[in-house]
Write a structure and sequence with these properties.
This protein is mainly beta. It is built from three helices and 30 strands. It is elongated.
Length: about 450
Amino acid sequence: MDEWVPVKEPPASRAIPAAVPYEGPSAVRMTLREEPQVTTRAATLGNGIYFRLIAFRKVGSNYVFQSAADFTTNGASAPTLRQGNLLTRAGTVRVIGYSFNSTAAMGTIPSSYTYNSTSVTIPNMNSDFMVYDSGDIANVSTISHNLSVSFTQKLCKLTVKLSLSQFGSNTFTNCTGVYVSQGGNVSAWTIGPSTNNVSANTGNTPTFNIANNSTATVRLVPFSGSRAITVHIGTLKLSNYFNANNRNITSSQNVQLLPGKSYTITLKFELGIQLAASNINLTQNGCTASDKNDLAKLRWATGNLKSTGNVNYVWASSQTEGGHFYSFNKLYDGSTGDPCSKLNTAYYGTSWRTPTKNELEKLVRCTDRVYNGGMWFMNNRLGLFLKAAGMRPETGPGLEGTGSGTSGVYLTSTLGNRKNTCYALDFGTTYIVVTDTGAWNALQINGYSVRCVKGTKQ
């Protein structure tokens, strides 16, 4: 599985505190890879690992309990008997074993086990759970005959990895409270053939933390069928600036994590929005293959530009926030310059700029023209949403615009054909156009919303 998925807020019961709004990317690349399956021989486990063997004698089609014993591994040498004895009457014997891959003692051996009935509790997901099944061993007269004990894992392992790209600093901190939704927190296994699966459990996994440049591995109850997989992040700070707290990242594809297998899931946070041509699916306004290919070369800010006076240029924390307003080729204080070039490089890196007329015309063709307080472009799940934030007629930069909620006017870096005008993307409830004659005559001294972009100019 390799796909881009939206980053979503969990249910309202886990609302984000107003003081810590989400500031990370609106979409994350989720990749799930299956690792080679592992069968573990007792001799290859670390020294001192406990395992329990249970002997049953076959009587007709039934298996009758004979004895049980606990052992610890001893490298390549014979295991050490810790308690009990493995004894049986002559006949056809089947030996079942299990281990938590732990040096902790396994507790008192029950007086009896019932084949395909007695249950072994898996109390938490902090350790492996492995089983052994000898199958039927015919004509056994003494259990001193050698057993080649190989364990197979019954849980599945998931290694969670975070990576960053395109940020000013591709590092993260304070990644805590992570869990896999419905990954299971306890389980049980019925003593019997190794084909028995652990019992289903859809509780969330215990929470875990992930350090920068590191990973975390958790054990899951295997999925009983195919379904989406959700990783919840409690707290996370990207590039020492962007809060990405209290988020659910859910696959759009269904997957089935199987017993005994290991998987790695990578969540790649990329600053900005850059879609592959194949993901640009809003074509109702004349979007061409050429438009898609050209737009796929551009990376867009995930929020409108704003600044604290003429310093600390940042972008809004979400696509539904209006941001501030800027005049053509002017900074917030009215001095000359591209305001996007002033984005804080420590957070955003370099090379951001105001888009050209040509780029916004391609964007306008790749929309469904559905108005919802703004419009979606390229893809209404992963793409660009431009809020209808209004504009500032002939009043230059500022915080508030007129017409908010009914129209949006976004600045380009392209001069208009008439004196003192510029091109802008202008849209309302029933129209959308890139023009130098539109809202308030497209005057350069108007205040416009700005959505920054990076990539070779088109």
